[in-house]
Structure formats: structure tokens, C-alpha cells
Amino acid sequence: MRWVVQRTPKSGPVAGGTMVAVMVVVSIAGIASDIGGATFIFGPLLLGLAVPNGPPLGAAIVEQTDTVVSEVLMPLVYLSCGLVVEFSEVNDGPTQLPVVRSTLWTIVILVIGILAKLVLPNMGVYSVWLLASIGVTALIVPLLKTYYDPLGANYSVGQRTIQHLKPNMELRVVACVQDESPVPSIIHLLEASCADGGNPLCVYVLHLVEQVGRASSSFIAHKNKKGFINPIQMDRLLNAFINFEQSKNGQVPVQPFTAIAPHRTMHRDICSLALEENAAFMRDAGEHGEADRPNRTIIPNVLSQASCTVGILNLKGETALPYPTDSKQYIGVLFWEGPDDREALSYAACLARHPSVHLTVTRFVWAMDQNTHTKEKSWDDEVVEELKHEKALNENVVIREVVSKDKEKTIAQIKSIDNQYDLIIVGRSQGSNCVLDEGLVEWSEFPELGLVGDMLCSSDFDGSFAVLVVQQHPKA
């Protein structure tokens, strides 16, 4: 196994002949263990322990054999287990023991283990054990789903939003990435987030790796409490963020982590880290918004279970966000109303403190609602007024108001901003007075981005720019 791993190029495929040889050896191991008096499972089990975790060999074996194992072999194993079960032995076994005593003996055997199996005669133990396993599973699963929810709403404390962030309070961001393509844009966005005079920034980088060819999930912290980093465990992706930390002379601390887990449970690592570190959250949605379906399933789970603000960064085109210290960064905000739009505007206000950031806020006001005053709208006005106050001291901030009368004109106004900005920030939902959802919901390709975010990321918008979709924590 080690010989194969050493001769396989990094990130390269395992030779087809090697996979055939592995399958032949697995068959021989099963036959040999069965002839030797053990079950046919024992030989392949020992062979499996010799396979190194992860790529290239472990991942290749899982990828090429998973369908056959899970869809054919595993059902046959369970079928064979059921065929040898004799439920009549539970009440009328060879030793004529009633069901209660048979169950008690089973418990004793489970405690004593192999010693009990050598001492006691056969009493229908296997049948009782199988019934007990089914019963325990049927009982434990619903109990866990009902009473064990570490990411539930009761675990969230306070208003963990950017809008309610107090001056000089540290802004903590969990940046989650799966590959290297969005790393430059995320770093450049973080650079714009740590302007002088703004909130201090702390970054928790979480490299998400799909669990392939491994027996269990793992969560790795690469930096200890003293700040020491083990370079052997670091990859190019995490090193890019460490270089960013060094370029800021330690003023922006970076904590690197790696989560190796199946796609269906990755959101737990993300939400747990954000909950533990009292942080906001940023995640790349895949270039062009065309992330494959397993990756996309992570985002809705995070949106529904995160205990903080969630930001989804989507890159269109091949160009990354410009580095704000080298060139100007043009950012646009599309603002209607509601908590998500307020959170998007609050984050944009943080970015506007950077001298290289030019911010333009387009506020959409419905003609029929211009004279309407509600509590929700007063909160929106308050956020806008705060930005106007900063605008008086910052000539790089522009606020303009657009009156919209119908859905078609609003869509046309959104399309008119094409290629004007390097980054467009928008809330995931636009409040109750937005009429864009009329007839557009069924056309949404990426519902996790919201209607406007999905529109901006669609193929109707040409050019290269980034879209940041923001969802405020619902408890705010």
C-alpha cells in the first residue's frame, strides 16, 4: 500500500491495474480467512487497516467501489444476517430458556465479551442480540433528533450581527473555502475590512475537505494557544492566509483549521466554529455559481442553523477582487429594506472606511410606499442616516435613491449596473414590500442566494465581478 502511494503523483489518479490488484487481494484475503476458521470478513478487515487514509489510494478505492459496496454487497450482508436469525429460539431455544432469562444472559455476554461466549452454551443469543440492536437503534435515533441539538437557537447568545457591532469591538470572521480559486478575493475583501479606525479584525480560516477514503471525520486546529504552527500539516490554501497575517504584522490574527467530513455534515463544523468563536461567517459559493450539487447542499444547512450573520461570496468571471492597497475597489450595494439589507449595508459601511474603497449605495423605494412609515422602515432609515453621517466625512461614499413603480423597471435598473463594480453586496431577502418575488421564485436557479443574488449571478449578467449575499442572524 505504501509502495503504491509513493509512486502515485500528487493529485494524480491511481493506475487501473493497481485497483484490479487490490480487489484481487481483497478476494484472496476473504477466502483465506474463511478457510482458516474465521469469517470471510476478517481478512478484508485486516487488509483495510493497511490502507492509508485519504488520497490517493484510500480515496480512489472509495470512489471506484462505493457504488458496488453500498448498493450490492452491503444489502447482501444484511440479508445474510437476517436469513440465519431464528426468532423461535428466543422463546423455545435448545436450553428451553424463556425470553426474559435469554435476554438477561445476552446482557451478561455483552458485558463479559469473548469469555462468556467460550463458557456458556448457545441460547439463541444471536437472535436476541439482533432484536436488541434494532430496538436500541429505533429508540436512540428519534431521541437524539429531539433532544440533542448543539446548533439550536437556544445556544445562541446576544445579537451576533455586524449592524449591532459596537465601536472598537473585534469583528470575527469564519472564512470557509474548499479550493484555492476564491482565496485571493477573500483575502482582498478581508484587507478592505480592516481599515484604520475601523473595528479590529480576527479571521478563522476553515478549509473544508470532503471525507473520502477515511474511517471518521476530523477537525484539525493548526495553531496552538502559543501561536505555534506545524508546517507539515499546512497546505497552500491555509498558508496564503498565514502570509496575509504576516503582511499585517500580526494586527489581523489568523487561526487556521481543517475540517474533513462528508458533505452532509460539513455545516456542523462551520456552525460550531462560528458559535464557539462568536464570529460572523463567509463562504464561497463556487465560481460562476456553478458549484456542484453536493457543495451547494452545505449552504442551505448553514443558512438555517448558523448562530450569526452569513455571507456567501460568489465570483463571476476569472478576475479576482482587486487588492485595495494596490488599486481602487469599487463596491455597490443594492438596498431595499429588511434585516438582510440592513446587515449588507452595515458591512459595506465597514468596507467604506478603507481609503481605496469607493462605495455606491442604490436605495430602491417603491412609489406606492414613499409616504408609508412603519417600524421596519424606520430601522432602515436609521442605518441609511448613519451612513450619510459617515458620507459627510468620506467623499468616496455615494448614496442615491431610485423610485421603482413595477417589477420590470426594477429588473431593468438592476441590470443597468452591469460591470460598474468589482463587488456587489445585497441582502438575501428584501423585506415584505419588495415585489420582485412575484413570478420570479420559480425561475430561481440558486435559491440559497435569494432572488436578487440569484439574478446577479445568472448568465444574464456578463462581465467579471463578485457578489456577496448577506443574511442577518434571525435573532437580531
UniProtKB/TrEMBL annotation:
Gene3D superfamilies in the cross-refs: 1.20.1530.20
Presence of keyword Aminoacyl-tRNA synthetase: no
Keyword terms, alphabetized: Ion transport, Membrane, Potassium, Potassium transport, Transmembrane, Transmembrane helix, Transport
Residue ranges constituting the Cation/H(+) antiporter C-terminal domain according to the UniProt record: 331-473
A Pfam match: CHX17_C
Subcellular locations according to the entry: Plastid, Chloroplast envelope
Parts of the chain that traverse the membrane: 20-47, 67-87, 99-120, 126-144
InterPro entries: CHX17_C, CPA2_transporter, Na+/solute_symporter_sf
Membrane listed as a keyword: yes
GO biological process terms, semicolon-separated: inorganic cation transmembrane transport; potassium ion transport; regulation of pH
Annotated Gene Ontology cellular component terms: chloroplast envelope; endomembrane system; membrane
Superkingdom of the organism of origin: Eukaryota
Role noted for this protein: May function as sodium-coupled metabolite transporter across the chloroplast envelope.
Protein name (database record): Putative Cation/H(+) antiporter 15
